[in-house]
Design goal:
The complex is a heterodimer of chains A (349) and B (332). By secondary structure, chain A is of the alpha/beta class. Helix content of chain A is 50%, strand content 10%. In chain A, a hairpin with a 2-residue loop joins strand 6 and strand 7. The chains are: A alpha/beta (349), B mainly beta (332).
Chain lengths: 349, 332
């Protein structure tokens, strides 16, 4: 009895060890049980392959789409659609979202949007490998007169894309979501329209999204799902298998992980280009500028860059990327192109 | 003037007398006991009778006139659920007394005689469901019962004994159903989850965690619905009606209502789910499009229980004050 009331140091040590073991084992066993449960459970979110992609409404966030009610499924019509539902914003989830949307928007253009000095992903594709730019150049060669006339238009109709990538932000608090997306626009650096679900955090009821996943990615065409990805822990490694599905629908070669990473690096670099510089380049892209106009814009660029080393570097990078494009010869006037080339050389100064 | 004054006095006197009488009658009416709410409704086989369960006991009424035919005595202080066995020969009634006893009674139909009664749990039973299949001995009927004390189990209807305990919910278990093929049991709980159990062994196979508030009811799509894997509908405090493929753990789609749903039942063809809600309304929902094909006012005050007539044309809706209403549920 005395032993139990006044345990010896050795007994106390044994009791302590048992207690620690018990404390350590309990959560481990419970976690094991949960893992066993989870292992047997495939995760589902959203309509499955072969099921319908039903129309649903979102609210647009940026630029001319801000505040407008949009329906991405209706917009896609017969075209392939990559639809990304963002349940939770994490660095990997948004990294993947950007990779997927950048690739589709780079490959998706069948049209002739204004020479893309603003650096949309479409323009950043590797020269000569981008079927869209080839197509664009071919169109310019085939139909030179009308094409040029069309390009000269101050406001052209937006290009009809071959495939659409769209992002749906799921949030119960729409105004908070709008505020966040506006504030974070630059860092998110999305080049495709984003909409906020008007159905709140769980999205459209007919889609049966699983709020326990991080991203739900749907690939489909003609109003039917052809692939569904419910991602709990999204990462770059998911990009090739997802893009392989949309590439199949687009009749494109599926990209390799290296190609996706290269596009991603370019995209990130472009994100560092100041808006002011983009705007000035956009103006330089016009084919209707006189030499004086080009000089004036050039002066504004130089004035903006000044002696700031970071801006100077951004200018050189941006100019270098534009001159490296397969369709560079179709951008702006000869004087503008020469000016852009000079900024590329300036990088070496 | 001298003639008018007595006439006016008489009129005033009459008015005061009438007013006093009316207020006296209303006071009497207020003092009269208000019938308790109808908390469970079930159609008897054949559809010619409907049984309404409440704290007052079990009322057997003729359908569709709703005229009271007889009352069945019960030892249940509260009736929370009723279900007829698949062959229509037994009526299972469940409820009990809060924090004292969870009780079920197995009654013979149509005479209503109690064959078996048991109090397996220490708190209220909220829901019961019959196993749609006859088990190996061919004669044994099983049912599942769930209750407030996180209690859930499968029982033998002949002996009343607990065969398998379904353990895992962390809060009161509010709802239960068997899938139409009888292979699985789905329970719903205030712990926000639905759990799927192997009906033969009682082993938990899945946990479905999409409700954002307590689950209030579950109902399996009838076997008559053609093709596809089992589908279960659930309702919750989060005002949603959700459709699941429980055996693969998939939430198929959901719908959010304006008011909290209180009870649900599938039509017998499996093409619609009928849901009643706190605002006294009845909603018919297409499970494929999750569109509400019909919304109509059913009772004053909250609608607490619903049962669909065998022909699928009318629903019996129970509400407060002992109200039982027949509602046309044919699509407009």
């Amino acid at each position: 009895m005395g032993g139990t009331r006044n345990p010896t140091r050795a007994t106390r040590a044994i009791h302590g060890a048992i207690a620690l073991l018990a404390l350590g084992l309990a959560p481990a066993l419970s976690a094991e049980e949960e893992r066993g449960d989870a292992k047997s459970q495939e995760i589902f979110s959203g309509p499955q392959k072969g099921e319908k992609l039903l129309p649903f409404k979102v609210t647009g966030v940026y630029d001319e789409l801000a505040g407008k009610e949009l329906d991405f499924v209706a917009e896609a019509g017969e075209r392939p659609l990559l639809l990304i539902f963002v349940h939770k914003l994490t660095r990997p989830s948004f990294g993947l979202t950007r990779q997927l949307t950048d690739w589709v928007s780079a490959r998706g253009s069948a049209g002739d949007k204004a020479p893309d000095a603003a650096g949309t992903a479409r323009g950043d594709a590797k020269p000569g490998t981008d079927p869209a730019s080839k197509e664009k150049a071919k169109a310019a060669a085939d139909d030179d007169g009308s094409k040029k006339a069309d390009d000269r238009g101050a406001k052209k109709a937006p290009a009809r894309e071959k495939a659409l990538a769209r992002v749906v932000w799921l949030d119960d608090d729409r105004s908070a979501a709008e505020e966040y997306l506006t504030r974070a626009r630059r860092s998110l650096n999305l080049r495709v329209p984003i909409g906020i679900s008007i159905d709140g955090e769980e999205g459209p009821g007919a889609y049966g999204l699983n709020r326990n996943v991080t991203l739900t990615v749907l690939v489909g065409a003609k109003g039917e799902v052809s692939a569904n990805f419910a991602l709990v822990q999204p990462s770059d490694t998911d990009a090739p298998r997802i893009l392989a599905e949309i590439a199949k629908l687009m009749g494109e070669k599926p990209p390799t992980a290296e190609e996706i990473a290269r596009l991603d690096r370019r995209g990130r670099a472009m994100a560092r280009v100041p808006d002011k510089l983009r705007q000035l380049f956009r103006r330089l892209a016009s084919r209707e500028l006189s030499e004086e106009d080009v000089k004036a814009i050039g002066a504004k660029v130089e004035e903006f860059v000044g002696k700031d080393r970071r801006r100077r570097r951004a200018l050189a990078d941006f100019a270098g990327r534009i001159t490296g494009r397969g369709d560079f010869d179709t951008i702006g006037t000869p004087a503008a192109r020469e000016l852009i080339r000079s900024w590329t050389r300036g990088a070496r100064r | 003037m001298s003639h008018a004054a007595p006439g006016a006095l008489t009129l005033a006197f009459i008015c005061i007398a009438v007013a006093l009488q009316v207020s006296f009658r209303s006071a009497l009416a207020e003092d009269a006991p208000r019938p308790p709410p109808v908390t469970a409704v079930a159609f008897a086989p054949g559809g010619s009778r409907v049984i309404a369960g409440s704290q007052a006991g079990l009322d057997v009424r003729r359908w569709p006139s709703l005229e009271r035919e007889r009352s069945l005595e019960t030892a249940l202080a509260n009736v929370h659920d009723m279900a007829f066995s698949p062959d229509g020969t037994l009526l299972l009634v469940a409820g009990g007394k809060p924090a004292e006893a969870g009780r079920f009674e197995v009654r013979r139909w149509p005479d209503g005689e109690t064959l078996l009664a048991s109090e397996p749990f220490d708190d209220l039973l909220y829901a019961v469901a019959w196993d749609p299949r006859l088990r190996e001995d061919g004669d044994s009927r099983r049912f599942a019962a769930v209750g407030h004390g996180r209690d859930a189990g499968i029982f033998d209807a002949r002996t009343g004994k607990l065969i398998v305990s379904l353990e895992g919910h962390s809060r009161p278990v509010t709802a239960v159903c068997f899938t139409a093929d009888g292979s699985a049991i789905v329970t719903g709980s205030a712990d926000l989850s639905l759990r799927v159990w192997d009906a033969a062994t009682g082993e938990r196979s899945r946990t479905l965690e999409n409700h954002t508030d307590a689950v209030l009811g579950v109902a399996a799509r009838p076997a008559s619905a053609s093709g596809g894997p089992p589908v279960v509908a659930s309702i919750g405090n989060d005002r949603t009606v959700r459709f699941w493929q429980p055996t693969i753990g998939r939430l198929m789609r959901f719908l959010r209502l304006d008011a909290r749903p209180r009870d649900l039942e599938w039509t017998h063809d499996g093409k619609r789910v009928i849901v009643v809600s706190d605002d006294g309304r009845l909603h018919a929902i297409d499970p494929v499009t999750v569109e509400v094909t019909l919304t109509t006012s059913a009772v004053d005050g909250p609608a607490l229980a619903v049962a669909v007539s065998p022909d699928g044309a009318v629903a019996a809706v129970g509400g407060e004050g002992g109200r039982l209403a027949a509602v046309d549920i044919r699509d407009p």
